[in-house]
Amino acid sequence: MSAHCNVVVLISGSGSNLQALIDDLGAGDSPARIQAVLSNRADAYGLERAKAAGIATELLDHKAFADREAFDAALIARIDAHQPDLVVLAGFMRILTPGFVRHYQGRLLNIHPSLLPKYKGLHTHQRALEAGDAEHGCSVHFVTEELDGGPLVVQAVVPVNVNDTAESLAQRVHVQEHRIYPLAVRWFAAGRLQLGDAGAILDSEPLPATGHLIRT
User: Fold this and answer.
1) Residue 1 pLDDT > 90
2) Handedness of CA 199, 37, 94, 85 (dihedral sign)
3) How far is CA 129 from the centre of its chain?
4) Is pLDDT of 2 > 90?
5) 28 annotated to a ligand binding site
6) 34, 66, 136, 186: which is deepest, by most CB within 10 A?
């Protein structure tokens, strides 16, 4: 790894987690540098956030490709042109092919709005409410071929209030997403975080199955 950890961020939407990363790196004391932001959607507001921060942006429309494999191959070529040490999924709404995931093994992070392994997939906040959960939250994990199933790095836990709606719960979880994603990227960029054979490793110590837990 170079003196700086080159990061490429993939987005599909508003880019609020991207903004949290941009703001964190703006503090000037992080070894991470966002080299480029790529989106599969032209209307992703995150592209505007990146441009405002002086970060290179690229658009790769998945609808222009015959299949998922062809799109992912083109995406790999675009990403690799920036020589990334780390690829960060920040609301990238595409299921990635096994070949893509293997190509970035150990240097691909995702954030998910639940306390994994609970509630993989969509509508996590509503599902937590319907299950009567006392706690909910968000998780940063290394990406593997199992959807939302890679080794956990860090989770933030929020209490579920009696009068919560899916929207109010989502708002509180988003606040924690914006805390833990920059934290995980800093750990990786500083060489403290890596993916081992048995799971995530922080400061040369295996992390528990839950990852590093932060309670709010």
Assistant:
1) no
2) negative
3) 23
4) no
5) no
6) 136
132: annotated binding-site residue? no
What does DSSP assign to residue 143? -
Q: Residue 96 in 3-state DSSP?
A: coil
Q: Is 172 annotated as a binding residue?
A: no
Q: Give the gyration radius of the chain's Cα atoms.
A: 17
Beta-strand (E) ranges in 3-116? 5-11, 32-39, 56-59, 86-89, 108-112
Nearest to 174 by CA among 123, 108, 112: 112
Query: Which helix (H) or strand (E) is 159 found in, with range?
Result: strand 152-159
Contact 25, 34 (CB under 8 A): yes
The 10s digit of each residue's pLDDT in 107-137 is 999 999 999 999 999 999 999 999 999 999 9
Check if the beta carbon of residue 140 is closer than 8 Å to that of residue 153: yes
Catalytic residue numbers, as ranges: 112
The mean pLDDT value for 176-203 works out to 97
**Residue 34 labelled as part of a binding site:** no
